[in-house]
Protein: Stage 0 sporulation protein A homolog
Organism: Desulfitobacterium dichloroeliminans
Amino acid sequence: MKLLVAEDDTASNLFLAQFLSQYGEVDRVVDGLETLEAYSLAMQENKPYDIIFLDIMMPKLDGVKALKAIRDYEAKKKVKGNQRVKVILTTALDETDYTKRAFDIGCEGCLGKPIDTQAINKLLLQLGVIQ
C-alpha cells in the first residue's frame, strides 16, 4: 500500500508516518501545494497513492481545496470510484462546516486530533484497506 501524509505540524507528521509505515510505503509533505505535487507525480508515474491522510488546515492550500483539486483531476481523467485515492482528513477543528464540505467533495473519513491509533485502525478496517 502507498500512503501520503499531508500535515504541517512536524510532530503529527512524523507520528502518522511512523504509525502508518506498518501498512506500506509512506511519503510525507507539509502543505497543500506539496500534497498536489506528490499526488500528481504519483499519478504520472502510474504509482498512485492508495490513501492520503490530509490535514484540513495547512499553509499555502488548505486540505479541503486540495481534496477538491484531487477529485477534479480524477473526474477529468475518468478515474473510476473504486480506483480513486481514499482521502482521510485530520483536524483539530471543532467546526463542522469544513468536514461537511469535505464529505460533500468526497473524502472517505475524518479523524480528530490528537490522532488515536485505534481510530486509524478502525477507519482503515471500515474502508477495507486492512484486515
Remarks:
- The beta strands are 2-6, 25-29, 51-55, 86-91, 109-112.
- The domain at 2-127 is CATH 3.40.50.2300 (Rossmann fold).
